[in-house]
User: Fold this.
Amino acid sequence: MITWNEFLPFASAAIVLWLTGAVAALRKTKGRSSIGVWATAAGLVVYAVFVAGLWQSLGRPPLRTLGETRLWYSLFMVASGLAVYAVWNYRWIPLFSLVVATVFAIVNIVRPELHDQSLMPALQSLWFVPHVTVYMFSYSLFGCAFLLALAGLHHHTDSYLHSADRLVAIGMTFLTLGMLSGCIWAKQAWGSYWSWDPKETWAAATWCAYLVYVHRRLIRRDSQGYKGSYVWLIVGFALLQMCWYGVDLLPTASESMHSYN
Assistant:
């Protein structure tokens, strides 16, 4: 049976494979590295095996705590980075995705106590798994778009915007699905679709920021103002961090219906 005690060896093996893939991608000057793709994919399989095993040992989806959502984010972040590399051949993206995933994995190693909590009645819903997983997947796509924005600003080019547009479009779809499923879940659990809970408020702000980016790109497809578009991607990602875990640091955190700790 796989428990959190086995997280370190699983995470270490996955990170080594991801690093192998990232290095292979960087060394490949033309085209895509098959070693980079397969090593990264193998690391994802190792990490996914741990998630599946933990799910079985806990007897519930490992989505309950902040630490468990970090587990999924690491998985989705590397998967999204691999997809971006496979589609657009940005050789550096697997390495940066690896860095982000590794940071979250290290936090989970340092703070294992966050995971030993039972599933409260409000979370015992059919909407629990789809709501959280689509959110985490959209967060990983926005994370890749954020990395592209930083690269675009650093290189003073708009060449990354087309890829960012695709990532944001897919991310917005999943983020919207996450919000809609959350509304239905809230109606069943608390009798109201939307209550301007602190978490909901920051989620709405995040959604609006990315909507502004989409609108901006629809009306300004030329190369002018590309820096502003990159800035909106950074602003959206900053709001996303507040929505995800920054709310817990606010004085109003104890009033949130989304505080399960």
Residues 161-190 form the longest helix (30 residues).
